[in-house]
Each structure stands twice: as C-alpha cells, then as structure tokens.
Amino acid sequence: MSKLKALDEKFNLADKRVLLRVDLNVPITNGKVTDKSKINKIVPVIKELISRKTKIILISHLGRPKGKIDQKLSLKVIAPILGTLLNSKVHFFNENYGSSAIEKSKKISSGEVLLLENIRFNKEEELNGVSLAKELSKIGDIYINEAFSCSHRAHASVCEITKHIDSYAGKLLAEEVNVIKMLTSNAKKPVTCIVGGAKISTKIGIINNLMKKITNIIIVGAMANNFIKYQGYNIGKSLFEKNQEKLLKDILKQCEINNCNLILPEDVIVSKDYNSKGQLKSLNKIGENDLILDIGKKTIENILNKIDESKTVLWNGPAGYFEVEEFSLGSNKIANKIVENTKKEILTSIAGGGDTVAAINKFGCSNGFSYISTAGGAFLEFLEGKKLPGIKALEINE
Q1: Which of 44, 35, 341, 342 is nearest to 172 (CA)?
Q2: Dihedral (C-alpha) 236, 240, 242, 247: value to the nearest 10 degrees?
Q3: 133, 224, 344, 346: least CB-packed within 10 angstroms?
Q4: What are the pLDDT digits (tens) for 42-66?
Q5: How far apart are CA 397 and CA 273, in angstroms?
Q6: What angle do CA 357, 360, 361 make, to 5 degrees?
Q7: 157 DSSP β-pair partners
Q8: 45: closest CA among 176, 133, 144?
Q9: Domains (range + CATH), the chain
Q10: CA–CA distance, 251 with 195 (Å, rounded to integer)
Q11: pLDDT tier for residue 181 given thresholds of 50, 70 and 90
Q12: Cα(12)–Cα(19) distance, rounded to whole angstroms?
C-alpha cells in the first residue's frame, strides 16, 4: 500500500528555502490576468509557509512556449497580483535556474517570496531533463509539489526533481488526490456523475471507470448530441463526434450490465446560430438548420430530481453554450441546485475541468461546492484510474 509523502507540521522550516511547484498557468489577455482562481488557491499555502519563517521560491509554467523565451508568457505579470493578495513583497527573477537564481534564493529574507521565470522557457522541462532537475534542486532545501494540475506530466520540475532533493506532497495536492480517491472508492451513495464536453472519446475513460461504482451517469453538452443522433433523431447542424457508434453502443451495454442509469436529454434549446434567440424543442422536432445549444425544461427538471436523490455528485462539463446568457440556463440550474443541497449538508459535491469551473464562477457558485478542482487533464486522468507521474514520484510504501 502506498501513500503520499507529507511534510510533518512540527518540522522546523525556519530559514529553510522551500521550492514550491505551483500552477500559475492563468489566462492572460492584452497583458492582464483575466481569471485569478489559480492564484487565489495557493495564497493560503504561501501564507502558512510565510508564518513558518521560510524562504519561498515559486516554480511555475505559463502557456506553451516550447522551450523558448516568449515575453508574452512571462510570469512577471503575476508577481504584483500575488504580492497584493499576500500583502507582502513578491520578488520576481527573470531566470529560472543557475548560479544567479541560487544566489537570489539565499539572499531573500525568511518570510519572503521569490517567483522564478516561466520554467517552460527551458526545453529540458518538458523532457524531464536530469541536468535541469539537478540545477533546480540547488535553489531549495526542500521541495513541495502543490501543482496537482501538472502532475500528469513527467516534467523536470514535477518528476525528476524529486530524485535530487527532499520532496513532499503539499496540502492542496494531497487534498485533491484524497477527494478523487473518495469519489472512486467510498463515496456516499447514490452517486451521480454529470458529464459534458465536446468529445465523448475524451471522457470514455472516466465513464468506464465510474459506471461500476455509481448510480447515475447524466450526459449533457455536445457529447449528448452523439447519443441523440444514435437514437435516430435529427441533430441539425449541431456539434458531434463522427464514427463513435461502436463506443456509444458499448456505453449503453456497459451501463446495463453495471446497473447504472444513463440519463440523456429529452428536450433541448436550439437556435439558428450563437447570437439568435433560443427555442425549446422536443427531440423529434429538431430541424435541419438547428443548433443544439442547451438542455430543455424537462431535461433540467429530470437532472435536478436526480441531484435531489443523490448524496454525492461529480460534475465535469457544462450543459450548454453557457458563455452566452441565452444558452446558460441548464448549467446555471445545475450549479445552483448542487450548491443548495451542498449547503444543506445533504450532498457532497465535486466539480472539475476548465469550462465547468468557468461556469460555476460565472453563476457565483464557487463557494458552494464541497470541492472544486482547477486541474484539467490531471483531474480527468486520475478519475480514469491512471497513475500520474507527479503523484507516483511522491509516493512511499507503507
């Protein structure tokens, strides 16, 4: 049996240099951060380390510079935002390894924060390079991984580094791992999984892993269009994934074998385009020029009833094109019903995936879930039951 290597809270960290791998991969438009969720999430962790009089050195990436320096993807813009949230000076250093970075890490005072430049400016990062990992390890005395969202990548600052420095799983990372393990092993039943997104092929691993353990799988979003079409209905010009008939047939069969209810839309909101008014239609009334952009009234009622019957809900994928108000009702109703039941303490609610988190934030529901994962690929892969390289690197056998 393996468990994550955690840092003893009684361990004296005073004056120690803590290399903290975080996820500051935030959306930036015209040089400004447009969503601070990931920054906000790590603030309590950094504050605790500040209170323990450590020297905090932050490692992160931003975007996909592919081993080249790209000033549009510099982490410099993050430093003042983080400084304001921490109410403390955050030093930014425009390099991410080497003798100057080592010297800088030693010079900052205990309780101060040093943010290194985008680690992906170095091509060895994504190659899980030994030499980069060794150089990074010299910048700290201990290493803590708080970037669950990057832990499905075998990268130097996530995996190889753990072989060259005393390394631990951070609290946020451990929390995320424990939540997903709970969901896949001992969640309170009935368990309902609401799955959306554009492609069913990207979610098949989750569906296959969960259907043996849960009561209901609700399919929404563009994924549902595949099932609607498979049932023989017209889906007009709606988005769907081609050549997935075998996959759909297999899902229907496996749900039956595992006694898992598969719930699909009964009615939908359609429009001629993304800017026109929506129209409620039953499945047999969808026209050649229609775009399915949200779930309909009956479907919403059905989903809300299933949430009421459930003790655990996982939500991954919005119900419609929520970015436009006209097609956001389905996602809005789902988010608010989950929050209502969570606050009554009759439901454990877990949500994850970029679009789902964006929808939850849009509807002002971010404080009402039991747990919200900001991780995308890592969240999905762990739900599928895959071993993540960054997690494996921090496991110890009991």
Answers
A1: 44
A2: -120
A3: 344
A4: 999 999 999 999 999 999 999 999 9
A5: 55
A6: 85
A7: none
A8: 144
A9: 2-173 (3.40.50.1260), 187-383 (3.40.50.1260)
A10: 13
A11: confident
A12: 15
